[in-house]
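Reviewers asked in the last cycle whether our approach scales beyond single polypeptides. To address this, we selected a multi-component target totalling 830 residues and predicted its structure end to end. The input consisted of the following lines:
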Amino acid sequence: MGKVKSAIITALLIAAILVLALFATISCGVPGSNGVKRYNSFMSMIPLGGEFTGEATAIIYPEGVISDSDYNYVVNDVDENNDEKREEYREKYASNGSLWIDKDKLGEDEGKGFAESVRCDAEIISDRLSQKGYSNYSVTIVDDYAIRLSIPTSFSYAAYKGYDSAARSEALTNISHTITYLTLAGGLSLRDATTYDDSDSLISINEDINTYIKSAVPFSRGGTDALRINLTDEGFEKLNKVLVSGSSDSSAYLYIGETNLQLTFTMGTGLSEKSLYFQGNKSYSQDFAIAIDSVVKGARLTNVFNNQEESTSISLIAVTPELGENASLWLMLVIGIVVLSTLLFSVIKYRGLGFVNCLMILSYSVAMVTAIFLIGIQVTVAVALSAVLGLALLCLTNAISFEMVRKETSIGRTIGASVKTGYKKMLFGVMDVHVILIIAAAIMALVGVGELAACGVVLFIGVIASYILYWFTRFMWYVVSSPVRDKFKFCGFKSEVEEDD
Amino acid sequence: MTDFKLSSKMRLFAIISLAIITIGLVMGTVFHFSSDKFFNYGGEYKSYKSITVNFVYTEFGKKEEIEEICDKAFDDAGISCLSEQVGTTGIGNNIIYKFSTAVDNDALIAAVSAINTKIAEMTSQFNDIPQSRANFHNETAVKGGEKTLIMAAITLSVIIVVNAIYVLIRYKLSAMCAALIAQLHNFALFAAVLALCRIPVTSAVLVYAVLIALTTAVCVTYTLDRINKNRKDSDNSKLSAAEITDLSVSQTFKLNFVFCVFLALAAVLMSLLAIGSMSFIVVLSSVLCAFAAFVVSFYGSVIFAPSVYPYFKNVFVKRTEKPLNKKNK
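The resulting structure, written as structure tokens, was:
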């Protein structure tokens, strides 16, 4: 290959890497918008795990339990009009640490039965949350009678720092919705009005609506998200009868307990298939699916949480991460150090060939950031480590091949012949390593949950990128070294024979 | 080139590994009976005590004022927190200080009382009853997160089995035995180190366990590939299985070592992110876990596995020779 062609291809590759790297790493104000609009880089738009952007935490109180501040708000109110309420609270509630418990709820067993019911509810809520695929979350019982939920906010760096308030607001709204719907108590019912008190059940008291539903799952196709409810054969027949028997200008509504899920069935028309679709936001569809599926399978909450009458509405607070406010910046710094160290090592060890390896390392890094951004994978320390494992794999396989080529040159072969023989000898070894890791990554992504699944997806992308770049390294080695006279010096190898041009 | 004779040291490495695993098992069992926990479950699986301070901006303009009051109260009570998280409410801030369950309740209650007294003192000019308040909570973790543990265990098991099957197809039975032993050995060793050093087990530790399996798979496969090539090389036709193994380990040691060290350093660097938590224990446990994961991977795949491979090779060679000998007779 001639000097000009070699220079053009190399320059094109470097330009592509630079452009993608700029879009991936640099955030700035949009020129001409007077600082109103801002371009956020791919890295700043990647959702981050709770250890980097903190959690949204909320305490939910079962009926009969109120917080210390709610109790004091009423009891310390000096308004004479509230004397009756004040007295009511003093007589009704007993203190338990930072909580006030309705004395009727405590009963004769000093609240042990009530505490046990709260514990069971907490386990059910924890099981429901585990199906959301969060990287980590926690459910703790507060002073025996309340439940604290801590859910990762999954903010991007831009949202965390306040550069993307819409995304921040959306994330918190989704979490609030999740907490509201995954803590619904009671069973399923189909009712004829939008409010519980004004409605009647459309299903006979002798029937169990749970036997109508096989499962509820979130569904997605072509960018549209929905909730899919799969009916049993019996459920299809019976629900069809109920809907057909109703008037066409009325609707039926699905409830959990006393809460209308806003899932509407049109009366007067029959069902055409056993799967029902309700279009909605991805997160909301998932919440409904988990709640309905959980109730159908018998995991029902005993206690009603955050009863509006007791003034304990859900108060969601976004708290700073345990690793510190700048943990996300430190992560970017650490990854930068890791990449820089591999670049330096390559150049020092292999000189000109190390430059080729550097191009591959940078290509991998930029491709990985772009892929994570496009897929929307939540990045935690473990996910970052999986990406680093892919980088290590690329460097290892390149190093193995370089050393094999070095060994071939040491017995007197030319660079060209050594590259051909060396890569041929390492063909199956390199393939084996990549195949094993691809299979392992696929298993992690499909079988694992939460953080493990995210690591599997990142590793899958990393291994594929590593294998493609491994072969691209050979091509770029040829391209970059073509105009070079002393190819041994270029690669940092010792020349045993005169190079044949 | 480094010259190892690992094949003759199988018993030594087996004794070392067994000793560590046994001590870890004993330690875990002791803790299981004393505190009902084989491992030290941390993070999202851990119970803790907390002091929550809610303050409003109309009473305290900056959170630093509250933090100063809290720090003094904690110092006077002789307690220190594991972590501090700050959240913003519409009208103020919510600061959550987390403490270990081992911290005395009376000390925490005394600290809360001191904080509330100081808050009342500082806000007496504005309100008779301050809106800012500190509360003490006992927070008990629930079991629901076990699903993550179970799925991680299943994932790990499937990866190990699939890896073994692949090695069986590519490199035959003796290699498969060595690869399987390496994986099981590494997992057992890591679990023993977790139990022994009481490193908090969080969801991240589960991922480390899987990464150990992957790192082991990479290093063992690379070594097995080199063994295969050396066996086929005519220059090595007179060497025994043990000698070929030692030669292959010598040739692959450097790159395997660099690979594992690179990953260990990257993991340790990332674990040092925990410095932001300002808790020495959290930092130490993160660093220890990351370091242990890749040291175990290296030891198991580069040192232990090659030492057992010749043993299995000889076992299977003898088994194939026996029927042949019987036929000849």
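Chain B touches chain A through 76 residues (CB under 8 Å). We regard this as preliminary and will revisit it once experimental data from Aim 1 are available.
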